[in-house]
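Predict structure. Chain length: 518.
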Amino acid sequence: MALVSVLHGGRSAIAGPGIGSKSTHLAGSRRHRCALASSSSSLSSPPAPPFSPTAAAKLVAVIGENAVSPLQETPWLEVMNHMVKRLRWTDASFEMLVFTDESLPENREFSSAVAKADILLGLGLGNPDTVSWINSASSSVPTRICFDSTDNSGTWLGGVKVLPLESPVDRLRSIVPGTKLAKGLKVLDLVTNAWSRHSSDNVCFALLVLIDSYVAPVPLLKNLRATSLSQIQCMAKNCGKEILACLLDPSCRKALDCLTSCAPNDQVCSYRCIVSYETPTLEAISLCILQKNNCLGLSAEIQSQPVVKPLEKFRGQELTHTLAEDIFIGWLGTLKWSWRVAAGQNAAYDHFANQIQLYYRGTKNSMWYDPVFQVETLEGELVWRRRHYRARRGEVPGTFYFTVLDNGVVSKEFWRIVDCADDLSWGLFYYSGAATAAGQSYSGAVLVSPDGMWPGEQHSERVNAALGRCGIKLWEMYTVTNNRYGDEDDESGEEIPLGLPEGSKLHHHSSIVSSSRG
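Prediction complete.
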């Protein structure tokens, strides 16, 4: 079963200082709180139905007054209101209503919502009396779970109380495979582990796991479900040689053991295993099981939501395909790289240290993208990794389709240049992708600059606007660690895998960088 997990990629990092201010977020949450309070105050007429008739999953979140999340100390109210959008981008029929714990007993909208809800979430609830009232009012909700809260009733998943385990019988049932309690504890472990990573991607993942486990299937998580005997037979029949080679390779075997410890669709955990232990034998087994024979029968498509449009003009000119490629190529030629990543949004791919981007033209007008990044392996070793993407133009200038073979699995990605400063001091690139054979879809964004530093405060408004067009909040961006290495070697003396293939070409418009320097 360890082999089933070999194919997961994903993309993340930790947001940090830079543009924007916490006061902006706090002001926004106060305005929303007032709107929520007033929306439920009409006593002359019954409240409107809380959820639409087509809602496939109905969630209610209750936030403690002034509760602050670990996501860059962003108010939980703002985080969960953003999760409302992210759930709908996954499936338009997933609906969530967000309330604060102020005056809940008088809030008719809340009472109406919990009567229909599938899942109730409590966040930052610190008043025991309020928690007790919420537990009583929501006793009909089959799945109830609290985070960072005073909770005196326990956790219920799918109508089964999973915590605390109060009797010897419950403790025995918890270790018997196949029982609802054992399943619930497994789901709870996955959800709490994701939640503890304190990132927007992982909060969304935890919500989707609850929906998938107890409410409605989530296609993005379909390979969380157990594999069949026929799938295992496919592996043994078609990939026996590759499986044996992997078992005889200590690094490949460690990768399998590591992947077994991850939930099958936990892209953060899986990709860290892969980059820690990647070897030709690991690539071969993944290529055989997933890509060549599709033994798991998985599929995935590039997500269509949110709709992110590319930059339309650069330096006052209409953006063309050639100019867009020159923006990607960026500083390469003046520096030894096109861009360095200052911050990223995806929790599995964008958190690595010292991310260096190389964009260049090849023969016959081809375009290539080679990201170089540093990994701290699970054994504490610092190593460099490099990938090799083929890029082709999209229909609209500023859009590109990228393809890469990453450890035996083909990923296809749709990239957009969302914005770029005229002086090339920063850029924002958005991507959405799918590893079809691994059954995984993902998206993210990278904020880039020539030195890997955040843009200055004078760019704050424009950068925030560009992130907003991607449906991304500033607090979702992770600051990337960028060390000031020399051009060729890192501090240990290891050679950084830069450089371009022979015959590579750079800018079509040679003035793009010279104008920036001037």
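Summary: The longest strand covers residues 409-420.
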